[in-house]
Hints:
By secondary structure, the protein is mostly helical. It has 17 helices and two strands. The protein has a two-stranded parallel sheet. It starts with a helix and ends with a helix.
Amino acid sequence: MPLKPGAWLSxxxxxxxxxxxxxQITAVFDPQQLADLPPPALQTTDNLDAxxxxxxxxxxxxxxxxHPALPLEQRIALTLHTLGGLKTTEIAAAFLVPSATMxxxxxxxxxxxxxxxxPYRVPPAHLLTDRLDxxxxxxxxxxxxxxxxxxxxxxxxxxxxxxxxxxxxxxESLIRGNQTDxxxxxxxxxxxxxxxxxLHHARRHGRIGPENSLIPLEKQDRxxxxxxxxxxxxxxxxxxxxxxxxxxxQLQAAIAALHAEAxxxxxxxWAQIGELYRxxxxxxxxxxxxxxxxxxxxxxxxxxxxxxxxxxxxxxLAKFAPFHxxxxxxxxxxGREAEAQQAYRQAAKLTQNDAEQAHIEGLIGL
Length: 366
């Protein structure tokens, strides 16, 4: 029994009323996905108000959610889920884990936030560097989901690509305007990330054919590529590389630049791309990067060598459709048609995107 029952009842009633109002506000104003938010009214380049450390509400939210108290994968996954508008299955595909595993990670992240009382507030500009790598990863994964949708009928989610590029532009402007204490290494990576997304997105019109059909790189009409975006992307990656602070986004952007600058698919410098992937493996040794390295080597030298390199990632990428597509292509070029057909079928089974599945089924004659 409280000492003053009347005061206790009044306090409890007031708190319950506040909780009810908050729930009503939340019900009306659900967190919006990045794709649905309107363009910002603030300018993002040179005239930054000193009192506005991050001149974009969405970017503020990204830095707020990427709290360093959470493990790296949890903070990235949670930000993608709550702010990026990505489904659990899409985030799981990005991390190459089952959906159930990703669901558990999200639950653990939310539980830790609640138990530890982690505050959701924007850090001051001079402390942003601790969260910058996570923010870049989130931006890149949002772009990746937009560039090649995990599931559904659409191959491209234009709004996600556009928002990821715009967010990275804001980030680059913020750092360039000396509003932060970001080291040169991280700034070079921001430039590399922006270049990478521009160079990939420049090929969007050549990737999609009639009725949302997928056109592979070797068959794309390169006159449809956005040359202005390619020019900007190449300029940005050259600027980043001159800083001599090599990172994963810069290397991937350099690879994308080699693709973009080749006038024909046959003129692609696959040997140089293979060398860049080998350097990228030293920076970030992941199964997906090793798969991409194997593809480049198979095209630069022989599919047989590529198949040998693919063997090292067969287990971690067993449920990754692009692995089986790469394997099928190498087997086909090696004259092992029956095995190639089997690999194509496995890729089709693992693909959730309708356009990609139709493309693969066309390759196996279904």
